[in-house]
Write the structure tokens for this entry.
Amino acid sequence: MSVKLTTRQVGDVTVVDVAGRITLGEGSATLRDAMKDMVSKNQKKILLNLGEVSYIDSSGIGELVSGFTTVTNSGGALKLLNLNKRVKDLLQITKLYTVFDVHEDEAGAIRSFT
Amino acid sequence: MQENASHKPEAVERMLDSTLESVDSAEELAVGMAERAGMDEDDLMKVGMAIRESVVNAVVHGNRYNANKKVRFSVSSDGQRFMVQVGDEGEGFDFASIPDPLAPENLMRTSGRGIFLIRSFMDDFQMRRLESGGTEVTLVKNLVSK
């Protein structure tokens, strides 16, 4: 299974539930297109729920960085929710864990945007 | 790391097309062998990702998706060492030119983390320029406790 994105709106925050694999090819392209689409629609408070992500490679990490930069440069904020151990470990060894605003509780994450 | 004295030696070699489908099949093949070699789930994830990154490099940066070029992929396991070799038919590159992805100026780059991850996840990693011009990488994971 490649990646599956489900988007829902909670107030002015766009929550993206991400499931599956974010790897080079379809997975990373799907995530990239979705983030570009949200920014173009002025949805600039984005919370990526990565709780159901089973696998992410260096390309997927690159897409998270790209999305973070794109959203931040457009005046918005991209935050991460529910990192599993694998994703958390990857972000830690690449020193990106402290770059992202990471949350474990959705309600708290939503509040942090205000 | 775990002792695996009863492990049956295995060795396979494949010539892969320069496609992303090859990346999936290479990872699946090698992870299956790693599992039979007795690696735990954490090491399987690390080895799988290191192999994925290596084959991606060969397909994308080495052979540049050229349908006329192949990726030589070999895996062997002898109970003590799990070894993977990936060779491409590309132009090669300057190994010293690989940027440090942890350097502050590179931290927000959207690419350039593959080799760093391979080094992080394997016990040994070597790169060499092939006489034919391509690049060959060798990845090793020790199977026996030190």
Summary: The CA atoms of residues 21 and 33 of chain A lie 15 Å apart. Helices of chain A lie at 26-40, 58-73, 85-93, 106-112. Chain A has a mean pLDDT of 95. The domain at 4-109 of chain A is CATH 3.30.750.24 (Transcription Regulator spoIIAA).
